[in-house]
Amino acid sequence: MRTMAVIRLVTVDVRSIFRAGIRQICSAFPDIVVVGEGSRNADAVALCERQQPDVILLDGSQSNQLSFIAHLREYHHDVAMLLFVDEIDDLLLHRAFQLGVLGYLYKDVEALSLVRAIRDASCGLRTLTPEPRAAAYRYQQNSAFDHHALSEREQAVLELLMHGISNDEIAGHLCVSRSTVKFHLRNIYSKLGVRSRAEALAFVFGQRPSESIPEALSRRALAVPA
Predict the structure, then answer these.
(1) CATH number for the domain that contains residue 124
(2) N or C: which end of the chain has fewer CB within 10 A?
(3) For 150, what's the count of Cα atoms within 13 Å in the CB-facing half-sphere?
(4) Is residue 2 part of a domain?
């Protein structure tokens, strides 16, 4: 007899009544087991380390959420993330998807839609309901990055950054000092509107890490309707 694959789920939200509702919904489905709950981002880190979940539901209203998502993705890259929100934030949605979030859901989502999103996320599939889909298109229409904004040296630094090497190694490749590399990185982050390596790479590459920096930035600019 074939054993059913069980999805290990962690829920992190400031409201205990919301977490209780998720737990009750999931209890009706034998393939989904809530293995941990928390109210803060710090709880999410501890729960991922201790419970090794397949999927984590995150509260999109917590402060500095994009930085936290990037941090969680860096150290727990195998965990599929879903983001719960009370209202659509175009920028949050756009950046969250760049950082690997697989679903962006309202907190009043219907039970079956929630279960479907959890199952899809566990398989690496993205969930985008009509409202977030419209927001993603709206953001794309209203923002385009000038791919000429990065200098030739900044593009070279970013090209090396995608290989995951340290600042010292980048300095060695380019025959410059470590402080010069940090200077270029600060400029890159500022021009891309990000705050970390993970966010910078997610911004540029999205789901296409094989592209060169100019190709990826050109794609992002060309993708925006005139």
Answers:
(1) 3.40.50.2300
(2) N
(3) 26
(4) no
Pairing of strands 55-59, 32-38: unpaired
Range of the domain at 160: 152-222
Q: Tokens for 81, please give them.
A: 């993330």
pLDDT in tens, 48-90: 999 999 999 999 888 788 888 888 888 888 899 999 888 777 7
Tell me if 224 sits within 8 A of 144, measured CB to CB.
yes
User: Which residue in the block uniquely carries the two structure tokens 């229409």?
Assistant: 141
Q: Would residue 147 count as lying in a domain?
A: no
Which tens digits make up the pLDDT trace of 89-106? Answer: 777 777 787 788 888 888
On whether residue 78 sits in a domain, the answer given is yes
Tell whether 111 is covered by a domain: yes
Rounded distance, CA 93 to CA 130, Å? 13
pTM: 0.60
Alpha helices in 143-212 (DSSP H): 152-161, 167-174, 178-192, 197-205
